[in-house]
Amino acid sequence: MPATFMGVGEVHKTLEEIRRLPEGIIKAQEAFEEFMAKYDGFDLPNEVLFTGCGSSHFLSQLLAMATTHLGGRGVSLPCSELLYSREYYPIGNPKLLVAISRSGETTEVLKTLDVLEVPKLGIAAYSSSLLENSDYALLVNTPEDSVVMTHSFPSFLFAFQQLLNHSLGKPLYDAEKLSDLSREVLNSEEYIKGIIEEFDFRNVIFLGSGILYPVALEASLKMKEMAIFWSEAYQTFEVRHGFKSVADEGTLVVLLVDEPFDWHEKLTEEFQGQGARVLTVGKRNTGANYFVKIPDLELPEGTALYLPVIQLLSYYKAVKRGFNPDSPRFLSRVVKW
23 and 115: one domain? Predict the structure, then answer.
């Protein structure tokens, strides 16, 4: 049997770091301000290519979508595809490459710096090779002891969102407000733990549309990393086209939604009709079995508030299964080759 390797009263580093999101948002604001002081007059170009690996790739998708949504053009590729298969993708003529790595030492990320002859902007949580070899360095001081990426993910997201708003002439987001709202979301921890204790689901499907689709992908990865547990992610309504066949009485469907409408309610009923249970994470319930309310903040600003919910769900599933989320099997904090 796997074990948590924790003594009585001890808390996993992973849980501590998930709970650090309010602090991480403030550090992200400080990182943005330090960046602007260092690179006075910097503005993002209209065409930006984003890259990363694993969680950092899903983050790169979020940043690309936010860029496009606010009037620029953002494209995202995982590092390996950018390195070896980029001719199959419509990357256009980017004027900047944004490379993301929590450690700043990931082999594939560092190799991408030599792929295109455009300026490079590195994002990392540590002074690192990535930042040293980039033209512009965004250091977000959110180090983590655990293997999986948790509060650094939404913190990186927020720091870049501020840079994006500044560059496109949009109002900056209120870091103090978002930090306070993230505390509200973290107050759902006991409720999320209760879902895990009540329902011993044997598979989980994460659904999200638009900018919430990469959040669903990240959720699926977190469930695999922490809980060593099979999970899938789809664009919300695409799941109806064949993929829903795997959902039954042993399935938890996690519906990530901003403003639900009648289709979300129909989809909830459809899954419940197959015997599955639904957890809706959004501003309003869809008739789901479980509901975690996200504060009323428009997307993409409020995207970061969804992250602790899916991280806590994965964390408590790992603990329920007897695994140590701090040390997932076969994984390491820094991926090198």
Answer: yes
